[in-house]
Design goal:
This protein is an alpha+beta fold. 31% of the residues lie in helices and 28% in strands. The strands form three sheets. Strands 12-13-9-8-1-2-3-7-4-20 form a ten-stranded mixed β-sheet, sandwiched between helices. Strands 5, 6, 15, 16, 17, 18 and 19 form a seven-stranded antiparallel β-sheet that branches.
Length: 453
Amino acid sequence: MDMRILAPTGALGAGFDTAALDRGVAAGPHVIACDAGSTDSGPAALGSGTPKLSAQAVTRDLRLLLKARDTLQVPLIIGSCGTSGRDDGVDWVAGLARTIAAENNLHFKLGLIYSDQPAERLQHLYDQGRIRPLANAPVIERKLFERSHTVAMMGVEPLQELLRDGYDVILAGRASDTALFAALPHLNGADPGLTWHMAKTIECGAACAIPPDANGLLVTLRDDHFDVTTLADGSRLTPRSVAAHTLYENADPFHIAEPSGTLDTTHATYEAVDERTVRVRGSRYIEADGYTNKLEGAELVGYQTVIVGGVRDKVVIERLPELLPMAKKYFDAKILDVFDGRVDPDTIDINYRLYGTGTVLAGTEPTSLQPQELGVLITVTAPDQGTAHAISTFVAHASSHLPIPEYDGLVSTLAYPYSPPEMDRGPLYRFTLNHVATGVTPTELFRTTTEEV
């Protein structure tokens, strides 16, 4: 076994150096794979269908990867298209690929894998008790599936069906990041422990390099080890930087769950081959008793207007924690008065986040030092944008003149950097699911279409 896998970047559209890509292509990889999405950026992409990265950025990267694939005549696999892996994200990237092919006289067999889940299917699984919560999952009920946009996360098997049939470019919906890189080696009989560990190592491109960047990595997978090499000038890999990536997005760096089982890196070893290459041995893969697909969902919860302000007066800073609850009571009464009872204050959320005194840490700061200044983020969330904006106007006005007992007369409590200070942020989404579908076959939740481009 001597298989080379090229991971050109951590995310399609994040950008990479063409020189680094050229090094990877020159090494003659057997497959190019690239992730295009994540839940890292929150629920908006899944709820709205709007990709995080621009069409211009994605097109630039995709053009270079399609040309590289054409040069090598090897498969190109891209997963979680459109950030969230929604069906319309797959169609969006496919449309870009068709345009690039027409402009550059490229020809390939294209396979599309869709991962959207209809409400009826999810309700059927729910009724059968086949939707199981993961740790810290929200409580769900049957009607949730009607208002939540849900995708299932695929493993290697839907990708492998297209690889077996000789498809050149595979654009997938929501996929396990690691499955993109593990699919072909796994299909060719590579050691599963090394395969999944290799895939975990390169899923984010050169994020495990020093310094981390958006460029790529090349893996050479052999029978009893794999070598991972950084491709960009000025970057290097160390045993610690490679080992550390098993902790990325995982609470347990030694046991990493996949749809078909668990990667166990307990006895893995990491050895520096040179400044750019690390050799890894000793990983193993434990097959699960049953197959599962993770479910991710998002729903619209309202519309939001935001106000950004700041304060440097130490008296105001000291008084804000007790003044803000009073202000919220005032706003509830104001909402009833202004809207003549047509808007229920309970449907409005007015939130103050005080940056500089525990907002990021979300708890008690480890020091008792009084902050010298605070950044204040005010969010007003309502069932519609017009109501959110209307309420934010008097919230902004009142918040800039809160009553400070130590001062006589009118006091300016918050300073706003913008005029007007109210900025409509648009729809607000929340994640609805952190569950798995159980008792499923590896491909039943996904559908595939193919075409010649």
